[in-house]
Write a structure and sequence with these properties.
The complex is a heterodimer of chains A (282) and B (294). In chain A, 82% of the residues lie in helices and 0% in strands. By secondary structure, chain A is an all-alpha fold. In chain A, helix 3 runs antiparallel to helix 4, helix 8 (170-178) packs antiparallel against helix 9 (183-213) and helix 10 runs antiparallel to helix 11. The longest helix of chain A is centred in the first third of the chain and has 41 residues, at 54-94. Chain A is flat and about 75 Å long. Chain A starts with a helix and ends with a helix. Chain B contains 10 helices and 10 strands. In chain B, helix 3 (112-123) runs parallel beside helix 5. Classes of the chains: A mainly alpha (282), B alpha/beta (294). The A-B interface holds A 169, 171-172, 174-182, 185, 189-190, 193-194, 197, 279, 282 and B 66, 68, 91-92, 94-95, 97-99, 101, 103, 105-109, 118-119, 122-123, 153, 164, 167-168, 171.
Chain lengths: 282, 294
Amino acid sequence: MTQAMPTVSSNRRMTRHNRTILVRTIQYVLLGAVVVLFAVVGDWSNFADQYLNWDVVKALFPRMLTTGLVNTLLYTAGAFILGLVLGLIVALMRLSEVWLYRAIATVYVELLRGLPTLLVLFLVVYGVPILFGDVSFLRDFYVQAIVGLGTVAGAYMSETIRAGIQAVPRGQMEAARTLGMSRTRAMLSIVIPQAFRIVIPPMTNELILLVKDSSLVYVLGVTAAQYELTKLSQVAASGGIRGIPNGPTPLLMAGMFYLVITLPLSQAVRALERRQARRGGH
Amino acid sequence: MTANVGAGAAETTPTGQPMISISGLRKSFGPVEVLKNIDLVINQGEVVCVIGPSGSGKTTLLRCVNLLEKPSSGKIVVNGAEVTDPETDLDAVRKTVGMVFQQFNLFPHLSVMRNLTIAQTKLLGRSKSKAESIARHNLERVGLAHRETAYPAQLSGGQQQRVAIARSLSMDPALMLFDEPTSALDPELVGDVLAVMRGLARDGMTMMVVTHEMAFARDVADRVVFMDGGYVVEQGPPEQVIGDPQHERTKTFLHRVLNPTSVEEGEEFPAPPAEIPQPELPDPRGLGQSTQDG
């Protein structure tokens, strides 16, 4: 008994170390098994033929670039700018001293965050021509799509901007008012510039979401010139474009195009957040 | 309005028009009344230090002067304008009333120079070059002429506070309000800020200073106002209020402030109530055993 004592304690220490190794080994074995399973069960040569048809890539690439990517960027940029303007106005309304402004802004935000973006898009595209059929500018499909996406984005952005404005210390507004600035001028010259620095990372995230949400335009009745990446790739994949055999390669291409936009943006968000974290400590 | 001035103040105040005159001022935050019927007059060129324990309402009083806090009732006239009148153009009055905050409140996204010129160019219609030359003059006054391109975060607390003073001065204020301007500073940085304030007082600036710096109040103030519980308890020249306080509450406060480490039991100190029941400490070993058993 007395002899065993030291062995027991050293065994226990070894066990803890060994257990870690054991658990990790099991994890790797399982992971390896899954990979092998996929490799063996999947029909990879067929998959490669279908998804990596280089002839299709070469034939479709120019159109992906000049139509798909351009349209995706148009819808995204338009909706982002509209969302930013709406978001700022609605954020200021929600922070207003006027009850009615606050009420309108709250209803807007709650309604548009509570509805699926797709439904809002349908409502705009079907509703606007009925409501404003005489306004030629609103008959443009791009405008309708951007209004649909932008109003939803505006609702989300307004909450982000509001949080940013509220994150600016009260003393900033007070110091500006004390110098004699009106509330509006203090907001514009002192508070909002600081709020925007705070909200740049979350707003970039909103932009990433919009890049992806622009694919929802796909379900609307778009003409060939209005195809964005998702619609274009889907049409191409189902054999709808002359000279391109049907097959899923265009879908993979569209995926690559999206990642080329979104990955640098999310990297930028991380860099900005790191910079702010460093600055926050002063 | 002289009726509002404390008895001791009349003979020491420099002759001048009333710059701030407060009468019947009350302020409540919800059910809590923090200012209870305050009457106070500060004359042109006068330096008035407001002292008192925390929660006495002194900061609220100061913030009522430029209406950062809205009084519940009462009348305040600042530099000839009745700020409590809803018809008064507050922004116009505030241009003439400088204010220095405990937390400096410099604009962190603007350079020191821009901090000093933004209100000048946007509100006083001064040209950029005129505003900058006024700003340089005031930075020189606070000893920071060499830091005009810096950003607030690059400055020490004391430097930030001096920039904040220069920012207020650049608007050519008729009077200056100071809300505990040295309370957020490391002890070694306090002196520079107080030196700047002494200079201002020497130059004849009307100043209302909420402070805990008793030495400063004694040396620089024309009048010291002691507040407690929302009332002006006592006021007069510093040698009287600080040197020879008449009221019990003033004596208690000054004793505590001037002897922060003293533990002597003077009669000014309220004795701890005897009837607080001392908790009975159970024997820790007994406690441990009982829980183990249970």
